[in-house]
Design brief:
This protein is α+β, with helices and mostly antiparallel strands and 441 residues long. The chain has 19 helices and 13 strands.
Length: 441
């Protein structure tokens, strides 16, 4: 049996400040020196196993997924704010909810939402300021949030409610980041009332959502949006979701559905800006549409190049750049023992840039997703996870991002300063200093 190489507590402490700021260079150096899997000792008997072994990740997510559960980061830390929806639940509750909600995100159902998605995109992209440096992340953040709101509630939510929901969602995420990155201050977060204040904030969001759900039920009017689909959904016994479970699921959609998308769109815009030939190919693809007769879904089906741009963006900058798991009972992978209850962190950032899998792994080459069959990369490309817990909103997110990038390129020529793309690794992989210059076409 092979032993996992270890990094000592002393080494961890020596690099702790750099790790707090950006852990990815430290992880990369250890992967390069120790191999694709190593154990980081944290002291007091605690440790985390980091891995960029794609086969090991497949084993945990697919081949033996029943022995692996999500870590308390999602099932407890995040759940205390957003409740027990698909992202944060486990076991029987997760299976029950997944079976119930899955049909609402089927491609044939998403057709009904494409108009709302495009309207939200048009409204936000119209706010871009031209011929001057423009920070794109806040705009994409608003775009992604508005897209989720419009897809859920059509026009039922007023702007004041939307602003409050967005503010609360973002403030709670910031608080969770602080809790996870500074666990040694948890006593102060609790004693000072910070956690209590944020729990009160999230109750305010729940009150707004409860009001919107109640108004929809009373209206007897159909909008064929996500809220209608969720209200129509029935368990095997014929019961509908109760209101509190429905609100948990909506909060999960806000939390998981807007930040990851806004991150990916920001990185995509920066990559396209620094590759004019890519902009031109997207523009040519758009010009090939039969605009008068072609539906949005037909346009999406006829957008292989723009789709490949999004796929390549998420390879280089996966918004969910780590996947965490804990094994329920003792296990082993490739003759390496995995003691019961091991904390496992799989780095998608490293797997997606691993030279064993990718030719020119650091280069932006959308063509790699065009030139080979779709299943070629399935064993080492995981932008939406894999296995039974693969992101339920993957099609929704892809449609939104393709439409957003095409709308952007159709309306603007995008330029950038020749500087490296900067990242801010928090709960998700966020962009930093994402400033571009837009010129009207």
């Amino acid at each position: 049996m092979q032993k996992i190489p270890e990094v000592s507590v002393l080494t961890f402490l020596q690099h702790s400040l750099k790790i707090l700021k950006n852990p990815l260079p430290f992880h990369h150096s250890k992967f390069e020196s120790l191999g694709d899997t190593f154990r980081l000792k944290l002291g007091f008997g605690n440790s985390v196993v980091f891995s960029r072994d794609a086969g090991f990740l497949q084993y945990a997510l697919q081949k033996n997924q029943k022995n692996f559960t999500k870590s308390p980061i999602q099932t407890k830390d995040l759940a205390k704010y957003v409740g027990h929806g698909l992202l944060t639940s486990e076991g029987e509750l997760w299976q029950k909810q997944r079976k119930l909600i899955q049909p609402a995100f089927h491609k044939k159902q998403l057709v009904n939402l494409l108009g709302s998605i495009q309207n939200a995109i048009d409204a936000e992209i119209s706010k871009i300021e031209t011929n001057r440096p423009f920070n794109i992340f806040p705009m994409f953040n608003d775009l992604a949030f508005q897209t989720v709101v419009q897809s859920l509630f059509s026009n039922a939510a007023n702007q004041d409610q939307i602003n409050k929901l967005q503010h609360i969602t973002e403030e709670v995420q910031k608080m969770l980041v602080r809790e996870l990155r500074q666990p040694y201050l948890i006593w102060w977060f609790q004693g000072s009332g910070k956690i209590k204040r944020h729990l009160k904030l999230i109750q305010g969001a729940r009150d707004i959502l409860r009001e919107l759900v109640s108004e929809r039920k009373k209206s007897n009017t159909r909008h064929d949006d996500l809220l209608d689909m969720l209200l129509d959904a029935r368990y095997e016994n014929g019961d509908a979701m109760d209101d509190e479970q429905l609100i948990d699921e909506i909060l999960i959609l806000f939390t998981a559905g807007h930040e990851t998308t806004s991150n990916a769109l920001t990185f995509a815009a920066q990559l396209v800006a620094s590759h004019p030939e890519s902009q031109q190919k997207i523009l040519e693809e758009i010009k090939g549409f039969r605009s008068e007769t072609e539906s949005l879904m037909e346009q999406l089906k006829n957008s292989p190049y723009t789709t490949s741009v999004i796929e390549e963006t998420m390879r280089l900058y996966p918004p969910a750049y780590f996947i965490d798991r804990i094994n329920i009972s003792e296990d082993s992978y490739n003759e390496t023992p995995i003691p019961k209850g091991s904390n496992l962190l799989f780095s998608l950032y490293e797997i997606h840039r691993h030279p064993d899998f990718w030719e020119e792994p650091l280069a932006f080459k959308p063509s790699r997703f065009l030139d080979t069959p779709k299943n070629t990369y399935s064993s080492y490309y995981f932008p939406f996870g894999a296995g039974p817990r693969m992101c339920i909103g993957n099609n929704f997110a892809m449609y939104e991002m393709v439409l957003a990038v095409q709308t952007l390129v159709k309306n603007f020529k995008i330029e950038t300063k020749k500087t490296p793309i900067e990242i801010l690794p928090l709960i998700t992989l966020k962009p930093k200093n994402a400033t571009l210059v837009f010129q009207k076409r």
